[in-house]
Write a structure and sequence with these properties.
Blueprint: H1 8-26, E1 31-32, H2 34-41, H3 45-53, E2 65-66, H4 67-78, E3 84-89, H5 93-99, H6 103-106, E4 109-116, E5 125-126, E6 129-133, H7 137-144, E7 148-151, H8 155-166, E8 172-175, E9 188-191, H9 194-217
Parallel strand pairs: 3-4, 3-7, 4-6, 7-8, 8-9
Antiparallel strand pairs: 1-2, 5-6
Helix pairs in contact: 1-4, 2-3
Length: 218
């Protein structure tokens, strides 16, 4: 099963399952059926069973899923049952907002360093972490075994920075710069283009309005 190729569509749904199961766990729910989970998440029960079957199933026919067990197993699949160290490159508003989001720490993502090219930010602190000159980032990553670099810098700086990160042992880049990065296959990149997401939202608003207006005319 470890060598089985899992589709990105399935992987993209796992964090949502994890989030809903966490809510159920906090409410004291011990067991849930695929149909009950379907009603809550608005995903078909068949889709839920298919998704879970990619990883062994986790449940018994007619008996449902143990919420705590399923929550823990998805945590392991997502790799958040262990800590991941990260640094933020770009200590502006977005970088500070990401660093200040304490839920990341709860999920095992530990904020270890912040870097910027603005000298006025050197020595300031984001939470308990001091902002350092961006020239120090490579040595810091090597010396502290950092796994993830978060890029919140302009796109013209992101590409050369990504090339530097490839040579200092980084495992993954969470990229908020508005440019798609080309890196070796052994480095994982998650591109987060905020404007793309906003344009998608705009499209869906536009589509919803057209459907509503069409329905009114009919």
């Amino acid at each position: 099963m470890a060598d089985k190729e899992i589709s990105q569509a399935v992987i993209s749904r796992l964090p949502r399952y994890f989030r809903y199961l966490g809510d159920l766990k906090e409410k004291g729910v011990e067991r849930i059926s695929s149909q009950e989970l379907s009603d809550i998440m608005k995903v078909t029960a068949s889709q839920i069973r298919q998704d879970f079957n990619n990883f062994g199933g986790f449940g018994q026919q007619g008996y449902g899923y143990n919420v705590g067990y399923l929550y823990d197993e998805i945590s392991k699949i997502l790799g958040i049952d262990k800590e991941h160290s990260l640094v933020i490159i770009g200590a502006g508003h977005l970088g500070k907002a990401i660093a200040g989001y304490t839920n990341f720490t709860r999920r095992g993502f530990v904020f270890k360093g912040a870097f910027d090219c603005d000298p006025t930010l050197y020595g300031t602190r984001i939470r308990d972490v001091e902002v350092r000159p961006i020239d120090e980032v490579e040595d810091f990553i090597k010396n502290n075994k950092i796994e993830i670099a978060v890029l919140t810098i302009p796109k013209d700086q992101a590409v050369p920075m990504a090339h530097k990160l490839c040579n200092c042992g980084i495992k993954a880049i969470w990229n908020f710069a508005h440019v798609d990065l080309e890196v070796p296959d052994y480095i994982v990149v998650e591109n987060v283009h905020l404007s793309d997401s906003l344009m998608k939202l705009s499209y869906n608003i536009n589509r919803s309005e057209k459907m509503f207006n069409s329905g009114e005319k009919n």
